[in-house]
């Protein structure tokens, strides 16, 4: 079979075959479709900049109440007429907007969910740094992250003197903590829908940031108590957030290094939400061992993050996160099977993939610490 595919590829690579296939009625549609897909790969960066420009001028919010004419948009969008027209036409071309009669523009089905969606809009703006890092992909693949913006944006990754996680101040971690807090809802909703927590008493959220997930859990499950473990600078922000939202009596953030320090004990549910994919295998094994040690016997671990080779979202894994994590300077996307293997090595049992309505945001693995020590 492989020899057939090799022959097929040689045939398709032939210019004479390409000319024939373009003109033959039964193959013409395939050629057009593949040409369009190749063009989209080449032009993808341009499309992202159209999206970025739309968010920077708040175009989606401006159109949120209905279609507006070009003249009305000129009054609200800080662009010259020629630039505004070019942006609007580009947005229509990639289906971010639709053009209606009398020179009016409106949201499309693709852009309507973006209105007021802080999580996605923040990520769109954040990607400006990522795209700068991708300007020399070969350098990145060779391991050169010396000029990578993402490497600086996530300070706990940077191997500078004094930049160990436990040495980072609240001010130093504020920017990335804010982004994580705003985008946490993309994963939090999946977890809340996938796993009921009525039977649990105390939750340990490892790498929980400013406590956005805990805030959601506290509202749904009034009986739960919470412990959050993150680097000291983030824990400081978390405790301030808990006090601000009235959760100081139910939740406490503890600062430390979750690879080196013992995690808080006395919890029957632990959560790792978007934590392990930006760490290498050796660190992940240590972290999972620490989680296993901290959990009560019979306790449960929920691990949620985007996973490589997710059916229907394959490009998200090794392509998007593969290069994003490369620019960060550490970690890699893992498949469900790879993560399950790491959990099994740490001693967890009953590993099961939970149902996720939007696997693009996260898939969720649930596993247990045995009630009695394994023989």
Automatic annotation (TrEMBL):
Return the SUPFAM superfamilies for the record.
S-adenosyl-L-methionine-dependent methyltransferases, Winged helix' DNA-binding domain
The protein's name in its UniProt record: Methyltransferase
O-methyltransferase dimerisation domain location, by residue? 40-108
Write down the species: Polynucleobacter campilacus
The yes or no answer to whether the keyword S-adenosyl-L-methionine is present is: yes
**Keywords, alphabetical:** Methyltransferase, S-adenosyl-L-methionine, Transferase
Under Pfam families, the record lists:
Dimerisation, Methyltransf_2
Q: Identify the CDD domains for this entry.
A: AdoMet_MTases (cd02440)
Q: List, alphabetically, the PROSITE patterns matched.
A: SAM_OMT_II (PS51683)
Q: Please, one GO biological process term?
A: methylation
Per the database record, which ranges form the O-methyltransferase C-terminal domain?
169-348
Q: Which GO terms describe its molecular function?
A: O-methyltransferase activity; protein dimerization activity
UniProt superkingdom? Bacteria
Q: Which InterPro entries match?
A: COMT-like, COMT_C, COMT_dimerisation, SAM-dependent_MTases_sf, WH-like_DNA-bd_sf, WH_DNA-bd_sf
Is-annotated flag, keyword Methyltransferase?
yes
